[in-house]
Amino acid sequence: MATGIREAILSGEFVPNQRLVEADLAERFGASRAAVRAALLELANEGLIERVQNRGARVRAISLQEAIEISELRMVIEGLCAAKAAERVTEDGARLLTEIADDMRAAVASGDVFGYSRLNERLHREIREISGQRTAAEVLERLRAQSVRHQFKLAMHPGRPAVSLPEHLAIIDAIRARDPEAAERAAREHLRSVIRTLPEADRSRPHGNGLAP
Question: Taking every annotated instance into account, which residue ranges of this chain make up the domain HTH gntR-type (predicted)?
Fold first, then answer.
């Protein structure tokens, strides 16, 4: 139940400040009102929705300042994951990262913004997997969900792929070289770049959601 609502929020089907009516959700997902209430409570704890007195629940809107704060937290946690990935990467893992790097180069060269963003998200996911930091991965997934619309704006910002590509390649190179300090430094620099660009990207109003920076 919570998974279905969460996916609708992440895909942009449910937009910020949209009311979530229990009866409508119960009908859509074929669930009881009690199951809907439990799902909404779970999503409220994740920061995806908020309860409004006498008005039920609505999708929580994340401000630019909060998106920046989330990115600052990501900078620390993703730096940790990159460092741990550099310590633990196997030959198979290194080959996989190399393949992703090649695909990212090709996507940027061809102007495939959506393909590049999907690869971007895959890269971050693979780094978390290689790192073995399960708790960090859970925290990062929650933070990503909260700021997904700002991430989409950033991904669609003109020229952003050409900026983020070398940042991602630096992370990959450091992990493949098994250099934890360089990997953490590269991951942090990537997130600093995200933070610098967020205010400018936030002024644009693309539609949709679910892409990565």
Answer: 1-62
| Predicted local confidence at residue 148, as pLDDT | 82
Distance CA 173, CA 97 (A): 9
CA distance 68 to 194: 9
Which fold, 2-59?
Answer: Arc Repressor Mutant, subunit A (1.10.10)
Q: Where are the domains of the chain?
A: 2-59, 64-202
Q: Are 75 and 139 in contact (CB under 8 A)?
A: no
pLDDT score of 164: 96
Could you give the CA distance from residue 44 to residue 32 in angstroms, rounded to a whole number?
18
Q: Which CATH superfamily is domain 64-202 in?
A: GntR ligand-binding domain-like (1.20.120.530)
Rounded CA Rg of the chain: 18
Largest Cα–Cα distance of the chain, in whole Å?
A: 56
Distance CA 201, CA 68 (A): 12
Of 109, 106, 6, give the one whose Cα is nearest residue 60. Answer: 6
Condensed to tens digits (0 to 9), the pLDDT of residues 128-149 reads 999 999 999 999 988 988 888 8
Within 8 A by CB and 6+ apart from 73, the residues are: 143
pLDDT digits (tens, 9 = 90+) for 104-120: 999 999 999 989 989 99
20 and 59 in contact (C-beta within 8 Å)?
yes
